[in-house]
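Same chain as my last thread, 162 residues:
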Amino acid sequence: MVEEAAAETPGSEIIRARLTDVLFVQILRAFIAQVTKLSQNCKGPARLLRAFVDPQISQALTLIHQQPLRRWTVAELAEELGMSRTSFAVHFSQVAGITPLDYLRKWRIHRACDLLQQAEHNLDEIAERVGYESGAAFSKAFKREMSITPGLYRKQQAGSAL
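reply #2:
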């Protein structure tokens, strides 16, 4: 990488970009391996990373990410994985540090934050696109999670973009 950084030969910029990508992936892999090894000592985002390498939990996360509009229940997720409801819920919480439905809620709010930054969507459209029945239900959930209303969040994000 050092040699490529110093080189000004044709294609060196592309090679540097690809080497940077490879380096990032290797660092991420090493971090996940360390998190997995230290298993129970993980907290916060590191714990969630561990969930992505757990075969069952990563499958549940994939289902949630691919079908965020579905009205998931813990029982339905467990059934999709071939697990009992209780063992799935306990395993998910132990590995990820959050319950499956809390994760689903946070994922929906995360997606909503992205949509709120796009002025073309009103609250009812955003609510529908992230799995809420109404703008009112979405607003209530958003405020509970973010401690701010969706409208104020949108205004703040628009102000910070200027």
